[in-house]
Every structure is written in structure tokens, then in C-alpha cells.
Structure to design on (533 residues):
């Protein structure tokens, strides 16, 4: 009887992992829609190509070496499909807390769940460098980011053995439940270093330093993208509980879903209020960024706040993100979709508010962990971007930028009917 | 023969079309155009930055009419397209040398 229950628990937790992974995979679609909506129509094909290709690149690189760097094991996932049923039964039987103990699930499902996270981190970069970066330069960076930079900092936090022996979690009592810092702020750090070397889009800043608006082409698309991300986030945070198969964990999963949703709603309202006060208008793009900021902020600890607490964390992150976007624009960091603010500023904020609700964490510990992740990803990315810049260059020519990177990079337009003779 | 060219607000097109039908005009050409006059452009807001849209969308209606019909056509358009606000548009009347109906080869008033 007990054996059968262990079989079922293994099956349930594996299945839960896979479904959540599929939800997170769908976030790639959300990023693609959000970014294609917030760029100009002449850059639509390229941003879509970039988004779907980076996803494939991340999957391959994480398979080749990323997963091995982050969690140990072999390159090319060799051996991941092997399962020793008898040994698995033994580890179930020997679990300290018995049936309610740690989760035991398929190794292949673990890879699937983790690979979609690295793709998410990489997706964050694509929006910030949109409309002016060479596609090939971006994909070269994606190879290093998903195969090495992200896995290294991931090993310091979620990994069993940290790369070079560093383990931030143990050292600082650092908590980053599903990756406010490890995934989101890391993506933003890589994006920031790229944008600094890349420069602003032509026309973003006037000759006298005035900030010009470059309106996105398709706000229905951007809104759909936000809804998709919001939905995918239930897998992102919910799956990070790692186990569904007992009362306590099932309840935690439910709380995580609830809090994730509450924080998104709070973030949306927070950014809406701030944008309305600042601009006297309901700025939809800020509202969308606010919902995402709420989601990013709650990701560091979605299992500990109350529903009201989660809403307030989201609300504050949503308000913060508007100021962050405007501030970055002022210092001439041109981020067409607001990715650095949404994932970086809100990600750091999420890490820093963890001690308010999670026992055993400290503000300084969270700050130290965040600083190490940021420094590593920013510094390593900067070096990689620089090398790419020297070898092939990061930016398309001025003429290509004016004409749109769709034609220059992909040779096709997103909406050819408008121009065909 | 005259060519009446009216630049009107897009949402007034249906009313103008009906008004012209009522006075027996049964043909016109309509084009979506952009431009500005005294109304100038208007400003929009995106992520806190204001930007000016210089050219506003308008609808251009062209009608070829006989000399006798010109006044009532102009009057009908003026009445129908008037909202009393800035940006209602303009009507231009110009001479028309020749009109040919392609199918039959009719010319002049016959072809209108």
C-alpha cells in the first residue's frame, strides 16, 4: 500500500513540475507579444525572431552545459533519463519526515522546469536592447548568458554545490524563492550592461537633451503579452514550491498562486495611480509594467506574506517602477519596454522586502546576495558584450535603424500588405 | 462642369453622403487623407513624454457636378459637415474641362 502511495506521490509531483514548466514556457510567448507591442512596427519581425530564437538557444545551451554548471551532473544531460525504481523507493522510505518530507520527482522534469527559467532571464534582455542591436550579436550573447553566466549565479543560490564553492543561501541566509534576483534582476543586469554599451535609439533624445516619446506600435499585443506573463507566473512561482503531494505543500502552492495574483493586481493599481498623478492620464504601458513589477517583486517570497501583504508589496513595486522608468530615461538609458526597471528595480525591491515576512532572513543578507548576483551578472555580461562589440559590433548601421531592423536583419516586414504595390 | 473637393472630419462622412444622396448626387470618390489647417495638430502622451501629431486624419470627398448643381451641393456639404468646432474642414470648387464615362464613351454632362 505504502509503495503505491509513493508511486503516486512521485507521479503527482513530477506531473506538477511538468505542468508548471509548460506554464513558464508560455511566458516566452508573453515576452514576445509584450515586446512586439512596445516597439515600432518596422522592428516587429526582428523582435519576434529574437524572442523565439533566444528561447531555442537557451534550451540548447542549458542542455549542453548550463544545467551541469548549475546543478551538477553531466554535460548534454547524459544519464538524466535513467530512473532506478528500487533506489527511489528506498529514498522515499528513508525520508526524514516520511510522507510529508522533501519532494522526490523525475530528474528529467527538474531539467524541464529549470530550463524555462533560464529562457525567462534571457527574454528580459531582448526587450531592453530592442530596435537597434544586431540580431547575431544578441544571439552570441544569449549563448554565453544561458550556458554560463546564469548557471553560475544559479549554482550559488539554488544549486547543490556552488560554483567555486560559493553558496549565497547558506552564507547570508539568503532567500529568493523563485528568482526575483536570480532570474529577474540577473536578466536586468545583463540588459543594463548591454544598453550602456549600445546607446539609445536614434531620435530618443533631441539635440538639446529633450526626451522624445517613441510610441509602441500595438498596445493590444502588449496587453495580451502582459496577461500571458501573468498567467505563466503561476507556474513560475507555484512550481517553485517543488512539491504538491501533501496537505502542507498543497496549501503552500495555493497560497503562492493567491499571492502571485494579488501582487500583480497591486502592482497594476500602484503604477496606475502614480502615472495618473504624474501625467494626468491613465498610461496603459505604465499600467502593464506595473502589473509585471508586482509579479517580479513577490517572486522572492510568495509563500510568506498574507494576501494583503502581497498586494501591498505589489502596490509598492508598481509605484516604484514608474519612477524607475522615468529616472532611467533621464540618465539616457533607453529601454523601449522598461525591462530594466520592471525586472531590475522591482527584483531588487522584492529581495529586500523578504525579511518583512520570512523568518530567518535579514535585510543585510538579502542585500549581500542581491549585490553578488548583480555584480557577477553585470560584470561578466559587460565583458562578453565588449568582446562581441570588438569582433562584430553590437549596433546596426544608422541607415538600417532608420529603415527598421525587420528589413535589415530578417529581410521581411511584419505587415507587408501596407506597402505592397 | 465643376469638381467639388471637400475635406471633412472622418466621422461626418456618413452624414455628408446621405445629404448628397438626398439632393440626387449618386457618385463620389472618397479618400482618407491627413493634413492640418487652423486646427493644427494635437499632442499625445506616451510614458510621460508628450509628442505632437502634426497631421490629423481627414476624409476627402470629390464630386463632379454640372454647373447648375454646384451651389446646392456645396450647401448640402456645408450643412451636413458642420459641427461648429474648429477642424470641420474646407470645400474647394474648381473648373472641370472634360468628363468621360469609360464604358460608353459618353462625354461632358452626359457622363456625370
Amino acid at each position: 500500500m505504502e509503495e503505491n502511495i509513493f508511486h503516486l506521490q512521485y507521479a503527482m509531483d513530477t506531473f506538477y513540475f511538468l505542468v508548471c514548466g509548460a506554464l513558464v514556457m508560455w511566458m516566452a510567448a508573453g515576452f514576445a507579444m509584450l515586446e512586439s507591442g512596445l516597439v515600432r512596427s518596422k522592428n516587429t519581425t526582428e523582435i519576434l525572431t529574437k524572442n523565439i530564437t533566444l528561447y531555442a538557444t537557451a534550451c540548447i545551451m542549458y542542455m549542453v552545459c548550463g544545467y551541469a554548471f548549475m546543478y551538477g551532473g553531466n554535460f548534454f544531460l547524459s544519464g538524466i533519463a535513467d530512473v532506478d525504481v528500487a533506489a527511489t523507493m528506498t529514498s522515499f522510505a528513508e525520508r526524514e519526515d516520511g510522507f510529508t518530507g522533501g519532494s522526490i520527482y523525475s530528474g528529467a522534469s527538474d531539467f524541464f522546469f529549470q530550463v524555462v527559467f533560464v529562457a525567462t532571464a534571457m527574454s528580459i534582455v531582448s526587450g531592453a536592447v530592442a530596435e537597434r542591436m544586431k540580431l547575431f550579436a544578441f544571439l552570441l550573447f544569449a549563448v554565453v548568458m544561458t550556458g554560463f553566466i546564469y548557471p553560475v549565479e544559479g549554482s550559488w543560490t539554488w544549486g547543490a554545490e556552488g560554483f567555486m564553492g560559493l553558496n549565497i543561501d547558506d552564507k547570508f541566509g539568503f532567500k529568493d524563492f523563485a528568482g526575483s534576483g536570480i532570474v529577474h534582476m540577473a536578466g536586468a543586469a545583463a540588459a543594463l550592461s548591454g544598453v550602456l554599451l549600445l546607446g539609445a535609439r536614434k531620435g530618443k533624445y533631441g539635440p538639446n537633451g529633450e526626451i522624445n516619446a517613441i510610441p509602441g506600435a500595438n498596445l493590444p499585443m502588449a496587453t495580451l503579452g502582459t496577461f500571458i506573463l501573468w498567467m505563466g507566473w503561476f507556474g513560475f512561482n507555484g512550481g517553485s514550491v517543488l512539491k504538491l503531494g501533501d496537505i502542507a505543500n498543497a496549501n503552500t502552492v495555493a497560497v503562492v498562486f493567491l499571492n502571485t495574483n494579488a501582487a500583480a493586481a497591486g502592482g497594476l493599481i500602484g503604477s496606475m495611480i502614480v502615472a495618473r498623478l504624474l501625467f494626468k492620464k491613465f498610461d496603459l504601458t505604465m499600467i502593464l509594467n506595473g502589473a509585471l513589477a508586482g509579479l517580479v517583486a513577490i517572486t522572492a517570497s510568495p509563500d510568506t506574506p498574507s494576501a494583503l501583504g502581497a498586494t501591498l508589496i505589489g502596490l509598492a513595486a508598481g509605484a516604484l517602477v514608474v519612477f524607475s522608468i522615468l529616472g532611467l530615461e533621464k540618465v539616457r538609458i533607453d529601454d523601449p519596454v522598461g525591462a530594466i526597471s520592471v525586472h531590475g528595480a522591482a527584483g531588487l525591491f522584492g529581495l529586500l522586502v523578504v525579511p518583512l515576512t520570512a523568518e530567518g532572513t535579514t535585510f543585510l543578507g538579502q542585500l549581500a546576495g542581491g549585490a553578488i548576483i548583480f555584480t557577477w551578472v553585470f560584470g561578466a555580461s559587460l565583458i562578453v558584450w565588449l568582446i562581441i562589440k570588438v569582433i562584430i559590433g553590437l549596433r546596426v548601421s544608422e541607415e538600417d535603424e532608420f529603415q527598421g531592423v525587420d528589413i535589415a536583419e530578417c529581410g521581411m516586414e511584419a505587415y507587408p500588405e501596407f506597402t505592397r504595390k | 462642369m465643376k469638381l467639388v473637393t471637400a475635406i471633412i472630419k472622418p466621422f461626418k462622412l456618413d452624414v455628408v453622403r446621405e445629404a448628397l444622396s438626398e439632393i440626387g448626387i449618386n457618385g463620389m470618390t472618397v479618400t482618407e487623407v491627413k493634413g492640418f489647417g487652423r486646427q493644427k495638430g494635437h499632442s499625445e502622451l506616451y510614458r510621460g513624454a508628450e509628442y505632437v501629431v502634426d497631421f490629423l486624419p481627414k476624409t476627402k470627398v470629390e464630386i463632379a457636378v454640372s454647373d447648375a448643381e454646384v451651389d446646392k451641393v456645396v450647401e448640402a456639404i456645408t450643412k451636413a459637415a458642420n459641427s461648429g468646432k474648429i477642424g470641420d474642414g474646407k470645400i474647394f470648387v474648381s473648373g472641370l474641362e472634360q468628363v468621360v464615362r469609360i464604358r460608353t464613351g459618353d462625354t461632358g454632362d452626359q457622363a456625370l
Remarks:
- Chain A touches chain B at residues 211-216, 275, 278-279, 281, 283, 285-286, 325-326, 329, 338 (CB under 8 Å).
- Chain A has one domain: 2-418.
- The domain at 2-418 of chain A is CATH 1.10.3430.10 (Ammonium transporter fold).
